[in-house]
Amino acid sequence: MRIEPTPQQEAYRQTAADFAARSVRAGAGELDATGRFPAALVDEAAGLGLLGVTVPRDDGGGGRDTVAYALALEAVATASAAVAMILAVHNSLVADVVARFGSDDQRRAWLRRLASGRSLGASALAEPNAVAGAGADACGVAAVRDGEHYVLCGRTAWVANAGAAELFVVFATSEAGGERGRANTFLVPGDAPGLQRAAAPDALGARGLDCREVVFRDVRLGGDALLGAPGEGRRVRDWALDGVRVATGALAVGVGQAAFDEALAYASRTQADGASLGRQQSVRSTLADTATDLDAARLLVLRAAAARDQQERCTLEASMAKLAAAEAARQAAERTMQLQAAAGYERGSTAERLLRDARAADIYHGTSTVQRLTLAAELLGEASGLRE
């Protein structure tokens, strides 16, 4: 059996790869050093159809499948994990969620804006077991029913794209009356009264995401802000997390591939004695292991992407892919730094940046520990009970 992308998927991957080579790669170091949100690159990506990738064409999106989306994200991530993560959050946690669960009015109001890049999206969705002991729904935002309205109070941290976002997808639980514990998901415009964006923390890796703490101070929303049916918040959240974990897996493979390319180039250089590191057996073994790990992770990501298109839920495939890809990326980055020794350990080197970005890919949207817990629950048949 031969596994390869279709001509359409490959053409789209090439579009993303050309964008990465032409516009992203040269400035990746500066983006990492400054941590400034790359608005111009996001605008260019929008013009290339990298926002709203899987949103139906009738709604202004690209109408592409998740395999093409994953291939494109990997290509962008080989140049910059931050740019790829901005796209992943916008697509998987906002545009796709509105397309899947939005009412006709919500789709008309937002999808063309999101797909064209006129509006950027951010998300404050809870991650199951993201903090040990915190519980599956520790999102920090409470929604109180007030007649036909909802009032949101609380705060969420590390919200990527928050500084530039015009739309937030927010997961909130109720703490009042007979609705206590009930979960809903809301569409909250960035200019909603009471929504405040606090100073961005200084992130270690994937710098430039414009992560903010988002505070909700009595944000009053009409019933038309509800995304999905009343009480359907956990279903919306879990579906969104499946998608973004496929995307983050693809991103991690891209980071790992970039690290491997660095190692391969370094090992091929002629040393002072006329030989190359690549002639050493230990180096050759390391290169072989890294290439194998990355290819295995890539295949798992593509399997998860295909499952995303074919199944209502792809939790097992997505978590497995995210786990394997994050681990492979971290190993590739660590091996590259080890190979380059002092040159790789230097602040500002490509190897140093890739190691920090690989750790970000591991942590975002559920750490490897969380993925293992999720996989165990799926394999033991406990997942449905845990989600409830």
Written account of the structure:
- The chain is of the alpha+beta class and 388 residues long.
- Helices cover 53% and strands 13% of the residues.
- It has 13 helices and eight strands.
- The strands form two sheets. Strands 1-4-5-8 form a four-stranded mixed beta sheet. Strands 2-3-7-6 form a four-stranded antiparallel beta sheet, with no helix packed on it.
- The longest helix is centred in the middle third of the chain and has 36 residues, at 233-268.
- The relative contact order is 0.12.
- Residues 127-136 have low confidence and may be disordered.
Total helices: the number is 13
Task: Report the major sheet.
Answer: 4 strands, mixed
Radius of gyration: 21 Å
**First and last CA, distance:** 39 Å
Record field, number of beta strands: 8
Fraction of residues in H or I helices: 40-55%
Structural class: alpha+beta
Q: What is the H/E order?
A: HHHHHHEEEEEEEEHHHHHHH
Tell the overall outline: globular
Beta-strand portion reads 5-15%
Spatial order of the strands in the main sheet? 1-4-5-8
Low-confidence stretches: 127-136
Mean pLDDT: 90
What order do the helices and strands come in, and which of them pair?
Layout: H1 7-24, H2 28-34, H3 39-47, H4 66-77, H5 81-101, H6 104-116, E1 121-124, E2 141-146, E3 149-159, E4 167-173, E5 183-189, E6 195-197, E7 212-222, E8 226-227, H7 233-268, H8 281-310, H9 315-340, H10 342-345, H11 350-363, H12 368-379, H13 383-387
Parallel strand pairs: 1-4
Antiparallel strand pairs: 2-3, 3-7, 4-5, 5-8, 6-7
Helix pairs in contact: 1-4, 4-5, 4-7, 4-8, 5-6, 5-7, 7-8, 7-9, 7-11, 8-9, 9-11, 9-12
